[in-house]
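All the exercises in this workshop are built on plain-text protein records. A record pairs a protein's sequence with a compact description of its fold. Read left to right, the backbone structure tokens trace the chain's path through space. Once this layout is familiar, the rest of the handout is easier to follow. Here is such a record, shown just as it appears in the course material:
>
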Amino acid sequence: MNPSSFSKLPFLLKPFLLSLLLSIFFLVFLATQSPLLRLKTPLHTTTNSPSDGGGLRIRRGYTSYNAYIERQLNKTLNPKLRKIWTTRDWDRKIKVFARVFQSLKQRNLISNDSKALSIGARVGQEVAALKTVGVSDAVGIDLVPYPPLVMKGDFHAQPFRNQTFDFEFSNVFDHALYPWKFVGEIERTLKPGGVCVLHVAVTRQTDKFSANDLFSVQPLLELFKESELLEVRKVDAFGLDTEVVFRKKIKDYSY
């Protein structure tokens, strides 16, 4: 409505229309400030967009951290999956992980004396595999414990003191809602000189329970602020295609 049209309106209608327009503007403003609306926007994005050939994208849809945890538990507590993990898949996965860890031993990235952690270990095949190759001081964490191999723990806030482990392994980076916290906790609990090995997917899509999508290893280089990249290798490990190895830097306090 232009000013000339407005001036031609009956006098009694003008206050009503002004009030209506102000109400509409106010409602639009409130909608843009809604906490629910803000929570549904991407929580964090690093580097480039997927179309640029790189980047890390947080998946939309989680209205709260509790909603995220509940969705992750839907998979972890699924009775059919847990039966498969502890029966049909048990020996097969231990053999595959044992080959992975044996290779890491041959490359001097882990030893029998290492204190090791498996992050997001579910029922503990990785922990069992570590013990199989001689790394006896090994434990896993997951939202649901599976004693004695796996204790309860959230990888966004590991239940361990600083500089606890010599070696940390995970193949659940894609399940991290806050990747920067996931990596920050690894660097916090790794000893200086300690090694972290991640199995990630960068050339294929991960499952429906994933909370982020990784499109190159570049975001990992940015997230691991206290570590140096040692290796990037192709692997074929339960839907994941890339092995990335970091070593936590040893700070020089001599100056």
Observations:
- Confidence is low (pLDDT under 50) at residues 26-53.
- The two ends are 72 Å apart (CA to CA).
